Amino acid sequence: MLHHLTVTAQHSPELLERVLRVMRHRGFSVQNMQMNLDSDNQQVELHVAVASERAIALLTAQLTKLIGVTAVSLTDRTAEPKLAVV
Amino acid sequence: MNGAHFVVKALQQQGVKQVFGYPGGAIMPVYDALYDCGVDHLLCRHEQGAAMAAIGYARSTGGVGVCIATSGPGATNLITGLADALLDSVPIVAITGQVASPLIGTDAFQEVDVLGMSLSCTKHSFMVQRAEDLGSVIAQAFEVARSGRPGPVLVDIPKDIQLAAVEHACITHSVSEPDAPELSDITAARELLGQAKKPLLYVGGGVTLAHAEAELRDFLAKTKMPSMTTLKGIGTIAPEQYAFLGMVGMHGTKAANFAVQEADLLVVAGARFDDRVTGKLDEFAVNAKVIHLDIDAAELGKLRKADVAIAADLKQVLPQLAMPLDIDDWQQHTIAMRQEYHWRYDHPGEAIYAPLLLKQLSDMAPKNTVVACDVGQHQMWVAQHIEFDSPHDHLSSSGLGTMGFGVPAAVGAQVARPHDTVIAVSGDGSFMMNVQELGTIKRRKLPVKILLIDNQRLGMVRQWQQLFFEGRYSETILTDNPDFVALAAAFDIPGETIVVKEQVQPALERMLNSKGAYILHVAISEEENVWPLVPPGAANDKMMEEC
Fold first, then answer.
1. Of these four, B73, B340, B383, B415, which has the most CB atoms within 10 Å of its CB?
2. What's the confidence (pLDDT) of residue A78?
3. A23 assigned to some structural domain
């Protein structure tokens, strides 16, 4: 099943590795990804499509725990964010 | 002041008096700062030993352990210790030297991307990029390590940052308070408690991590609910506690494993439905609704759906759920099971019977004795047959199952609690994994006692080969072990070997009464297995027992 996530986080050099590692390890395959950095290089917004047979809540709970991650939201293709996890 | 001196000052600001480590090129400025700073550094003989000593220090005190290593191999040698601390939620801070900033990414001598390696085995990790960040990073590292669900934090510091000039400043990091539990969740949980006829408390290591042992005792006193623990929960509930059933799971008690299958409500406090606890998950506690309490929201619903899930500090939530329950019949039933399925120590023949040996040790050891286990059969026998008054007295690598944990963890505990008896219970396989730490015991003249249970096998693997691999004993026979007493003697540690039951009592007395370190080498039969055993893929009430 495909899920669309938006992850907002404080920028750090290894942030992308942290987020992607959790996705892989928890059983979610990245299908599509876009990363935006704000103008003063402080904040990152990641838009990621992940596929898995596992419940998406298992992933959002783990991403939410990462130090520096400030918000994780789940969207579908037609709707605005409907679940603010943090 | 340079960055290295600043690091040491920052450690002191965190109240650190003891660190464990091993020096090397990229961490030399920090070791220079440690030379005369007043923080006690204990040289371990391998960085893995230093990490596990820090874990032993943290677990035996409830504080934060600190270990230090150099770049490259020093850092990679810490990794198993970090993973161990992550799986068991132990607050440690590891400080590693890194090659100088301009050399990072050039494959310099002893350069490894330890930040990258740390991502999967720490709660968080930092690489310090500016000397002026050192204070805030160290303060954050301690805050992250001990807050919420504790865990290991790595701070990697390039050598040029250690040598850079830094202004000293007192830096702290604010402690974030966990959210209070929602009233609606508390109400829902109390409703389930009120409806339950067969409730059972399932206690994990999270209770101790939350410093909520007193709240748990009050909860039990009010509810009189039968209870059981995980491996990490051992010591949280006094063995004589009303309707306490012991450890649940693969090598748990029959009373706990039968009771959990009968329960109609599980109150899960700081535990996580680990596979060694649940057996076949789909058949675990099938009749029970679940109230799951944990500071880590990610554990709620991860493996078992909870009817009421509360992500909160157990210290806050347990008192709100403490209420008298009308469960007399269930209490009496579980007490009867506990009496019916008690451990038996009658054993034919002259050979030493490990469960009885550990029961005798439990009866003879002074109060507040710390036992640090290695991993394998002896670890399960310790969990089954030694009674603990405090979870800080039982150090066992539970989540990662790290062979080699016992001796260095005992070193850390003995340094932390110099006036208490500390015993490393090891097996002949595990003992050889970190045998170099005998040098650390000698160096500090630590009075660590070592009880080495030797079956000349990798016993737990051998047991599984016997039961599940048609007796094909692939690489588990250790008849070429060294002379362990002679080996210990090379480190000025006296000891003896015993082989028959009648030698046990006086030998344990000699070990416990020895002023310094001591090794008691105990030969047992390779045929001895750990019972009961929930076989892989089976429900908890389908235990195998000795024929």
1. B383
2. 42
3. yes
What percent of chain B is modeled with pLDDT above 70? 98
Which residues of chain A does B120 touch, with a Cβ-Cβ cutoff of 8 Å?
21, 25
B83 touches chain A (CB under 8 A): no
pLDDT digits (tens, 9 = 90+) for B197-248: 999 999 999 999 999 999 999 999 999 999 999 999 999 999 888 799 999 9
Write down the pLDDT at residue B173.
65
For chain A, the domain total comes to 1
pLDDT at B476: 97
pLDDT (tens digit, 9 = 90+) per residue, A19-30?
999 999 999 999
Structural domain includes residue A83: no
d(CA B506, CA B111): 52
CB contact under 8 A, B298 and A14: no
Would an 8 Å CB–CB cutoff place B105 in contact with chain A? no
- With respect to residue A84, please indicate whether it lies within any of the assigned structural domains: no
CA B468 – CA B460 distance, rounded (Å): 12
Cis before residue B239, ω within 30 degrees of 0? no
Model confidence pLDDT, tens digit, residues A52-79? 999 999 999 999 999 999 999 998 664 4
User: Under an 8 A CB cutoff, do A65 and B119 touch?
Assistant: no
Sheet strands side by side (includes B153-158): B40-43, B18-21, B65-69, B92-98, B153-158, B124-127
Q: What is the pLDDT of residue B172?
A: 65
pLDDT > 90? residue B48: yes
Domains of chain B: 3-163 (3.40.50.970), 183-340 (3.40.50.1220), 354-523 (3.40.50.970)
Residue A49: domain span: 2-78
Nearest CA in chain B to A85: B297
For A26, name the nearest residue in chain B, comparing CA atoms only: B302
Which of B159, B232, B289, B449 does the annotation list as catalytic? B159
Q: Tell me whether residue A86 is in a domain.
A: no
**CATH code of A20's domain:** 3.30.70.260
Active-site residue, selected from the candidate residues B1, B12, B109, B191: B109
> What is the 8-class DSSP label of residue B101?
G
The closest CB to that of A65, out of B119, B298, B301, belongs to B298
Token pair of B205, please?
Answer: 């290591």
Judged by average pLDDT, the poorest of B29-43, B189-203, B282-296, B532-546 is B532-546
Q: Is the pLDDT of residue B51 over 70?
A: yes
In 10 A of CB A29, how many CB atoms? Answer: 11
Q: In what order do the strands lie in the sheet with A43-51?
A: A29-37, A43-51, A2-10, A69-75, A83-84
Q: Determine what percent of chain B falls in helix, strand and coil, rounding each to the nearest 5.
A: 40, 15, 40
Nearest to B116 among A17, A58, A62 (CB): A17
ipTM of the complex: 0.92
